[in-house]
Design a protein that fits this description.
The complex is a heterodimer of chains A (172) and B (180). In chain A, 83% of the residues lie in helices and 2% in strands. Chain A is mainly α and 172 residues long. Chain A has a two-stranded antiparallel sheet with strand order 1-2. In chain A, α1 crosses α5 and α5 crosses α7. The longest helix of chain A is centred in the middle third of the chain and has 44 residues. The radius of gyration of chain A is 18 Å and the shape is globular. Among the domains of chain B are: 46 residues, no CATH class; 42 residues. Chain B has seven helices and no strands. In chain B, α1 packs across α3. The chains are: A mainly alpha (172), B mainly alpha (180).
Chain lengths: 172, 180
Amino acid sequence: MEIQSNDERAFRQVYEQVFPILMRVVYHVTNNQDLAEEICQEAFIRFFDKGMEFATLNDAKYWLIRVSKNLAINQVKRKSREMNMVEKLKKYPTTGANHSDGSQVLMEKETRKLVQEAIDQLPEKFRLVIVMKEYTDMDYKQIAQVLHISESNVKVRVYRARKMLESILSQE
Amino acid sequence: MCVDDELLNTYLDGELQEPWRTQVQEHLGYCNACRQRLEQLRALHQKIADAVLPDSEIDARQDRVLQYFEKTRFSPSNKNKKMHIFRKKIQVRLVPALITSAAAFVVVFIGAFVFFGNNSQQGQEILPGVASQIDSAHIRQVTEVQQPSLDMFSLEQIVQHLDAMGYAVKLEVKAVTPLE
């Protein structure tokens, strides 16, 4: 099924399926939901405005992930630093109070936060691969296609990223 | 010899090809250490995967961005589509109406000739341009007809004129009683 990116119907179909994947990839790479939303919107604007043709929905998905991944990397250094600072300042007064409440939800939130902070510490090339492996349904071959690297390279990066994460998480 | 972490990770992801896959499976069948390591890696994978951004955090953002596209990208074509349907309906409704009124006009036009065709004066009233004879009875001086009358001037002009002539004019509207 061919996909014309500026056709409203085709766009809606791609958007519905790909937006959550894109949002997850960008969020876990940037650790900033607002920035992730902005980047996803920008990626879809480019997708629509360029009026491209894709042979399959997967091709459109790979294109969108590639574009948003590049946007994320380019902007993360500039914007995320400022916005994270603001978010940290906002959250600071409530953090102490939350620790006294040991509910399951908060424990899960805390674990999620720790994992995400560990991912943040990974070098970019490992971060991208592990995020795509853990938070999308893509296999090694598909990740390799998106990142234009070999499948064996994906395999090695997944292994090394997990090794680093294991080490970071065991310290906490 | 035991299975290394790289191979175990690939096995865990279901990406290990044959014959290595079967070999690893066989090894795991009798090696406790490797089985334990695989479970550790599985738990780590699960812990990372559980940190996924939940749908509840995505839904509102997905709707908001879609609204942006509905406002900035989709709306012009939608309006055109609606306009198109609207025009189509008008066209469909108007065509029979136009045919009917055109037919009615033709009937009235021909009917006028049939009924008043012999009476030259009435015919002249209906069709002033097709007078058959040109003689003194049919020609009249048009300029004489246009006698100046008060209708040719606006109320303002009349009042101004009377004012210039030195009259004090007071205007009142009929049947309107001023409030006490």
